[in-house]
Amino acid sequence: PTAPPAGTPCPQRCRRAGTLQSNFCSSDFVLTGTVKSVSRGPPQEPGWAVVSVLSLYKSGGLGVPQPTKGATLRLQLPCRLCPALKKGASYVLMGRLGGDGGALLPPDAFVVPYRPQQQQLLGNLSKRPCRGTP
Questions:
Q1: Among the four 68, 77, 96, 129, which has the fewest Cβ within 10 Å?
Q2: Paired residues of 49 in beta bridges
Q3: What is the CATH number of the domain that holds 25?
């Protein structure tokens, strides 16, 4: 999958589909993190979110430094409206890698507020092989 061009129109409604389980394998990366900053930028340019990583469950080629806890990651937000992220809030983030290898959170990315009880489920999912991937 290639990154949408800058200025890609957002969908009519920002909605995620599926569950943690159904999105885990189809996402390039899965992590939990706390949003440090969000910049939406001018309408024709993508926005950015800087996230402090709590746990990394699937890296998918992301260049995340070790140890992952406390590392910061810059995520591109091609749509200005979604996913809706609040500074200081923690989320489960499932996204894709852009053409340049950077982290991308498209409008349909699976993003939910993080709850500690999700940690065990995500850990279990990360141990299972995903079908259809090398």
A1: 129
A2: 38, 75
A3: 2.40.50.120
Position 20, amino acid: L
Res. 111 pLDDT band, cuts 50 70 90: very high
Alpha carbons 11 and 88: distance in angstroms, whole number: 26
Q: 19 or 62: which carries more pLDDT confidence?
A: 19
104 close to 98: Cβ distance less than 8 angstroms: yes
Q: What is the mean pLDDT of residues 113-126?
A: 93
**In total, how many domains does the chain have?**
1
Domain of residue 83: give its range.
Answer: 20-123
Query: Is 86 within 8 Å of 112 (Cβ atoms)?
Result: no
Is the separation of the CB atoms in 78 and 104 below 8 Å? Answer: yes
Cis amide linkage into residue 67, ω under 30° from 0: yes
pLDDT score recorded for residue 17: 82
Mean of pLDDT values over 36-57: 87
CA distance 21 to 89: 22
Which pTM value belongs to this model? 0.84
Say what the pLDDT of residue 2 is: 43
